[in-house]
Amino acid sequence: MATRIGVVGAAGRMGRMLLATIAATPGCVIAGGTERPGNPALGQDLGKLAGIEPAGVVLTTDSDALFAGADAVLDFTAPAATATHASLAAKHGHAHIIGTTGLEAPERATIEAAAKRAPIVLAPNMSLGVNLAMLLVEQMAKALDTDWDIEIVEMHHRHKVDAPSGTALGLGRAAAKGRGVSLDSVAQRSRDGITGERRKGDIGFATLRGGDVVGEHRVIFAAEGERIEIGHIATSRAIFARGAVKAAIWAQGKPPGLYAMKDVLGL
Ligand SMILES: NC(=O)C1=CN([C@@H]2O[C@H](COP(=O)(O)OP(=O)(O)OC[C@H]3O[C@@H](n4cnc5c(N)ncnc54)[C@H](OP(=O)(O)O)[C@@H]3O)[C@@H](O)[C@H]2O)C=CC1
Ligand SMILES: O=C(O)C1=N[C@H](C(=O)O)C[C@H](O)C1
Q1: Would you say the CB of residue 165 lies under 6 angstroms from ligand 2?
Q2: Mutation pick for ligand 1 pocket among 7, 36, 130, 233 (CB with most ligand atoms within 8 Å)
Q3: pLDDT in tens, 253-266
Q4: Judging by DSSP bridges, how do beta strands 119-122 and 226-234 pair with one another?
Q5: Which CATH superfamily is domain 3-122+237-265 in?
Q6: ipTM, two decimals
């Protein structure tokens, strides 16, 4: 039987890409899609919305019905909306694939509670390349001492609302894990003015925004006399959408729990 996959935030940049990817994946069908009341695309056919063949399902506001009827729901929306969606996943026990970034402690707590009742995959970046880069960064940070300063630079399109990006913070967490420290204790999320010299062991972040950049990340290990860099450049949102659909197929029918992309990808 086909895997029925729904999309909340279906009219968004990622939402449309997700619809097209579900339709193009053998064994998967679009179960439905939602947006908030007032969205101008409400009532439109989801296939048409994604620029593909009509899907015979229209965009609605009923996320409760979507979570009830889908095997898995893909969520690339906004933090408050994602917390509400996680509670719906818990209510219906169906898989929830979360790509939303900018989540703070209260939303994370709601997601963790929901994961006791539904399988939830949570990842700030669903591409294979970035998840491999995270593993490499962890290994490098483990091998190199604090004579190697770690700095993370990211650039995204002008519409992005959170900073640093979820991926940059994920790369930072991987580096901190490799060093055996918590990211919160060493993160320098921005710098301005007379900052004083760099504190040994800090992990620094720099954020660039502009144009239509899909997503670029660079982790720099800088020592006296040499530098190592691990970089990833996304040129299409299709890489995130493919990862999300893969996660949906993987998570369908799994026991409740909070899973990461490395579980899905077997890394
Ligand atoms: N993990 C990953 O691999 C990736 C993660 N992302 C993350 O995904 C998120 C979305 O990115 P992007 O697609 O560019 O953003 P968009 O703003 O284009 O899309 C988000 C969509 O969600 C909608 N939405 C907000 N609240 C609700 C709600 N309560 N119910 C239904 N829909 C809702 C928005 O509607 P409205 O316009 O009304 O607010 C909008 O249409 C961001 O957090 C981004 O960082 C992006 C790419 C990859
Ligand atoms: O908002 C985006 O576009 C992206 N957000 C994610 C993030 O915050 O890391 C992933 C990707 O880089 C695109």
Answers
A1: yes
A2: 36
A3: 899 999 999 999 99
A4: unpaired
A5: NAD(P)-binding Rossmann-like Domain (3.40.50.720)
A6: 0.99
